[in-house]
Amino acid sequence: MPHDTPPTWTPSDASPGEPRPAKDPREPRLAKDPGEPRPAEGPEEPRQLRRILRLFRPYRARLAVVGLLVCAASLVSVATPFLLKEILDTAIPQGRTGLLTLLALGMVLSAVVTSVFGVLQTLISTTVGQQVMHDLRTAVYGRLQRMSLAFFTRTRTGEVQSRIANDIGGMQATVTSTATSLVSNSTSVIATVVAMLALDWRLTVVSLLLLPLFVWISRRVGRERKKIATERQKQMAAMAATVTESLSVSGILLGRTMGRADSLTRSFADESAELVRLEVRSNMAGRWRMAVITIVMAAMPAVLYWSAGLTFQMGGPTVSIGTLVAFVSLQQGLFRPAVSLLSTGVQIQTSLALFQRIFEYLDLPVDITERDRPVSLERVKGEVRFEGVEFRYDPEGAPVLEGIDITVPAGGSLAVVGPTGSGKSTLSYLVPRLYDVTAGRVTLDGVDVRDLDFDTLARAVGVVSQETYLFHASVADNLRFAKPDATDEELHAAARAAQIHDHIAALPDGYDTVVGERGHRFSGGEKQRLAIARTILRDPPVLILDEATSALDTRTEHAVQRAIDALSADRTTLTIAHRLSTVRGADQIVVLDGGRAVERGTHEELLAGNGRYAALVRRDTLLEPAP
């Protein structure tokens, strides 16, 4: 977000703590906030299920192998009750030891084959499931990398992290085992039912009478758990956002200095308690109804024995002991996959809420995109033009910028000044396409920046902002982020140009020193000089300095300014200035007010005009601290 409207931080609020400018209309309008997805219900569910199945399409060959292994294992396991029937009805009554041995060995072999097939299917299906999760994580991360700056000014960092970590992590069991479980249990159920019909159709009818009721109960439980899962993931996202914000270095500093540590702890405890309540509800939802199904199915053997005995006493057709034992064995074999199928259905219903949250991010429209055939510039001279530029966050709102016509020749320098909220930072962000104009165009060497490929634009434009971001890594790694193949000599040269080499070299670990979270082991001026060294290493022909020294004291500013002067040499430079002392030597100074360029000229010309710029200089002089 432009520094003209700095964000506020509200760590204990349930709503995102982002700035509240008018929203960019091209950004997606999520349900209430990005952490509150719309649950897929009714006609949405079949479409969503088809989309989930498409995730497995690249791995259908391996899934076909899994299907064959599952079918083979199911068929082999169904043979065991028939072998048992022959043992009880033939081998033992007739004293046929050889047949008894073969049948017993057959039962052992069946168990061995089933186990081997099970291990192989688990290996393949788990590998496929993890690959699908990898694809989802990568797709979401890649999508977010392409989102415009406006999206991230409205979305809490913890919310984004929760989508990638908690939501995708919560789908692990579903993605890695559900497909195999469906195939395995469906095959087992079908094969078992066919075998039961082959043994005795009457007992089969008795066994399956309550199946439709069980299916209906499981669907109701699934819908209930899905609703709770949506609430649970939202709560997890809120808690993750609170942790990310309040336990960062900046968050700890703010909480301690404001005396809010206890308040933050209580707020976190409240969120954690709410998560406990949702977790308990999720685990207990429909538990009694599913327990009834388990009890009924476990009682079925007693019902079968009772039915067979009653039929025999009433003079009906008799069932042999072997057939009855084999049938009960099949029925018990049917119990496990049938319950598993019902549980899988419940799990799928629950996971739909997680998939919906992930698909919501994957469906975010990307408004800043490359052309189908973008222009690539081998050598960028650095001429920048703003031609009739207009920019609005909201098409129905007032323009942030309007009627901007500025030319900065290659190697020239432009300073943009004006009161807070005048659109200075927004103007500079149009050059690297952090935002796109809503009218007019911005050109680089005569080419509309929207026509350039992203690589050319990234190589051509470097940005040094007021808020320096450093990774929790070594100094060398932070510098090499701009140029991964940079040699140590290149790092040292860039650091010398940025007036920071001597300080780094004096550290115990030198360039291997870890900078800490967001660079908090270094002062503000040192971090700025590291950022400048990083930009020098990248060597962009166009440089944007977005109030790079506004947060520094006068002495530190002078040191950083010397580094900036080294960086700006022979480059096209756009400086967004708060302190006017830093822009007096600019080739051209533009004064923005209310999104319009109200004055332009050199420092001397604007002072002589005694207009807005002269008033700003007088104010700046009064505010300048005494040496």
Can you give the mean pLDDT? 76
Q: Which structural class matches the secondary elements?
A: alpha/beta
- Shape, principal axes of CA atoms: elongated
Query: What is the end-to-end distance?
Result: 33 Å
Counting DSSP E segments of at least 2 residues, the number of strands comes to 10
What summary fits the major beta sheet? 6 strands, mixed
Q: C-alpha Rg, in Å?
A: 35 Å
How large is the share of residues in beta strands?
A: 5-15%
Instruction: Give start-end ranges of low-pLDDT stretches.
Output: 1-42
Strand arrangement within the widest β-sheet reads: 6-7-8-3-9-10
Number of helices: 21
Helix content: 55-70%
Keywords: ATP-binding, Cell inner membrane, Cell membrane, Membrane, Nucleotide-binding, Transmembrane, Transmembrane helix, Transport
Domain ABC transporter: 384-619
Main location: membrane
Protein name: Multidrug ABC transporter ATP-binding protein
Written description of the protein model:
With 627 residues, the chain is α/β, with parallel strands linked by helices. It has helices at 44-55, 60-91, 97-145, 149-154, 157-170, 172-199, 201-208, 211-246, 249-257, 261-284, 287-313, 321-362, 424-429, 454-460, 475-480, 488-497, 501-506, 524-538, 554-568, 603-609, 612-623, and strands at residues 384-391, 401-408, 413-417, 439-444, 447-448, 461-465, 542-546, 572-576, 588-593, 596-601. Helices cover 59% and strands 9% of the residues. Strand 7, helix 19 (554-568) and strand 8 form a beta-alpha-beta unit. Residues 1-42 have low confidence and may be disordered. The strands form 2 sheets. The protein has a 6-stranded mixed beta sheet. A 4-stranded antiparallel beta sheet has the order 2-1-4-5, with no helix packed on it.
